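[DERIVE STRUCTURE TOKENS]
===
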Amino acid sequence: MRWLLALAILLFSFPAFATLKWGADAEGGAPYVFRDPNAPDKTIGFEVDLADAIAKEIGEPIEFVQYEYGSLLVGVERGDLDFAMNGLEVTPDRVNRVRFSKPYYVYKLQLVARADDHRFDSLDRCAELKCRVATLGDTAAERLLDARAIEKRIYDGQSEPYRDLALSRVDAVLLDVPIAVYWARPDPKLRFAGEPIARGTYAIAFRRDREALAVRVDGALERLATRGDLRKIYEKWGIWNEDQSALGAPNDVAQESARAWTPGRYLPLLLRGALTTVQISIVSMALAILLGLPIAMARLWGPRPVQWLAIAYVEFFRGIPVLLLIFFLYYGLPTVGLKLNAMTAAIFGFGLNYAAYEAEIYRAGISSIPVGQWEAAASLGMGRSLTFRRIVLPQTIRTVLPPMTNDFVALFKDTSLVSVIAVVELTKQYQILAKSSLKYLEMGLVTAALYLMISIPLGVLSRHLEARISKGAL
């Protein structure tokens, strides 16, 4: 038994048997890292091939770990990952956080327009025309759009910007050349608008105390480049170009000076996000309330088929996630010719979903009114409709007001989900600004304060209305 224990200790302590954890986000990550359409359980991409080549060079297995893109550096810093490689651009803020390897790819940014739109062939002309340009958050493309004061729409995935461009929801897309080559070039509805611009580099991110591993990977990348293995990988994926011969040149994007993120700069942007959150919340809740009452009445007093439809509505919309509903309204309906803009899709998504909950609240409130009140009103010659309007409904409102307020606060917080369809509400604005400034704590506290400044008065208003209703003032 002792020799087995000694062997086990030797196996687990010997570095050559360690498995390195490589973090990347396979969600819409083509051509970097993505699921093979022909074998969904398999991950493919040019960075997968590069990781395999590095593993052979350093003599250690590398295991892919699915990790959300925006948290990759955090995962490296926490030690969840040995390194991160997912088209990470070398930028000043990131250099201050992690140890980057030698660059493994030189990228440029490619502006893409619709094939039938020939108004512009450069970013400068796009700025003159006040185009709305789609891009990904926390990228060199986003920083360039900010520097040119061009209106932007931020997306989480790589395919969605080009889909919205084809649907005329945006005027152009500015993203890295590998992304444009994979998603835009094969689409006959899209075209490359001008030559690539703003050269930069991708590199692998390591925690600062993993210098030994970083040095070994640097050596592996150098050998792969010298033997031409990097070129073979990039040619396989159609992303090789002459820029790759200048991997040692300075990084234009990384030379940009970091911004001074003072409250005077970020607070107006957070307030703008808060305003968007309030707009979505109010209009969505109004729609939910307007739909909820007739649904509840249909379920209580409608003919049998109408009751079944009301029950089906409630069970269906309570049973599906609101995120799925928003995705369907925004990305699914255009396939049948019905195109909604992002704000409309968000409002309808929340309105339809929360109407199911409001209908049940109304139904419970109406059912709580004693039958004797209906009978008393009938004895005075009042019809059912008049009894409902004058006697039942006012009492129902008093009963349902607290749970409705709770739903409003819940909806208010759920609006953070609309960032998936490129609506920049308060939480999304915080994420964008925090990643750019690294002021996670400071901006997080300000964002939380804004949420509280909006949600707490809702509770105060609810209690005020309850008090006035109980006194008969309303």
Summary: The mean pLDDT is 85. The longest helix spans residues 263-301. The first strand starts at residue 20 and ends at 24.
